[in-house]
Write a structure and sequence with these properties.
It is a single chain. This protein has helices at about 10-15, 50-65, 70-80, 85-95, 100-105, 110-120, 155-160, 195-205, and strands at about 125, 130, 140-145, 170-175, 180. It contains eight helices and five strands; from the N terminus they run ααααααβββαββα. The protein has a five-stranded antiparallel β-sheet with strand order 2-1-3-5-4, covered by helices on one side. The protein folds into two domains: about 1-80 and about 195-205, Ribosomal Protein S4 Delta 41, Chain A, domain 1 (Orthogonal Bundle), CATH 1.10.1050.10; about 95-180, Structural Genomics Hypothetical 15.5 Kd Protein In mrcA-pckA Intergenic Region, Chain A. The protein is of the alpha+beta class.
Length: about 210
């Protein structure tokens, strides 16, 4: 997607927070001065208008999940039509994407890498290859790396990085294996400090 040609650091600085576009091998603040706006001198970010805050939050979430504007807006529309809280539905749908789950399970170091692995046919869902990164995964589904790709350097590096992260409660990766299971839907409360989803809903509902 063309918007990511600007580079991970540039996008991170735009929204002013770590949105996990880097692998995590080194601390983000060692690579990106994300508290400083691109092209701006060092200084505090202004509080911004309501619209500015809404737009920034939308971009934060969109960049975080590596989605185009069209994809993200369509996911909002889908979430809005579902029963229950639109904000909770958005989080659940975002976290249910295959590229996100491959990243969360530690099969890839970044979501961009996860998308590439899926597109190249290196990922299976319930034993069958899936090549669509946006594919929605259901509770109980098993996601795995195909046998011949498990020894690839990228996968092994991702596995090492995963061993230093806190496990995601709704996912289970089988120990020392390249397979994981979706135990339940994502918990929206887990993201309450990271995302103010209500700002995105306010933006799109205008």
């Amino acid at each position: 997607m063309s918007q990511y040609r600007k580079g991970a650091c540039g996008l991170t600085r735009r929204v002013g927070t770590d949105i996990e576009l880097k692998s995590g091998v080194k601390p983000i603040d060692k690579k990106c001065k994300y508290e400083q706006l691109p092209g701006k001198p060092v200084g505090r970010r202004s509080r911004g208008s309501d619209y500015s805050n809404q737009l920034t939050m939308k971009q934060t979430m969109r960049y975080y999940y590596r989605m185009s504007e069209k994809q993200f807006r369509n996911l909002y529309k889908k979430s809005d039509k579902m029963s229950g809280s639109t904000g909770d539905n958005m989080i659940i749908n975002l976290e249910s994407r295959l590229d996100n789950i491959v990243y969360r399970l530690g099969f890839a170091s970044t979501r961009a890498e996860a998308r590439q692995m899926i597109s190249h046919g290196h990922i299976q869902v319930n034993g069958s290859r899936v090549t669509i990164p946006s594919c929605m995964i259901s509770v109980g589904d098993a996601v795995s790396v195909i046998e011949k790709f498990r020894g690839h350097e990228r996968v092994l590096n991702a596995k090492e990085l995963y061993s230093n992260k806190e496990p995601i409660p709704w996912l289970e990766r089988k120990e020392n294996q390249f397979e994981g299971v979706v135990l339940s839907h994502a918990d929206p409360a887990f993201f309450s400090e990271m995302f103010k989803v209500n700002l995105v809903i306010e933006l799109y509902s205008k």
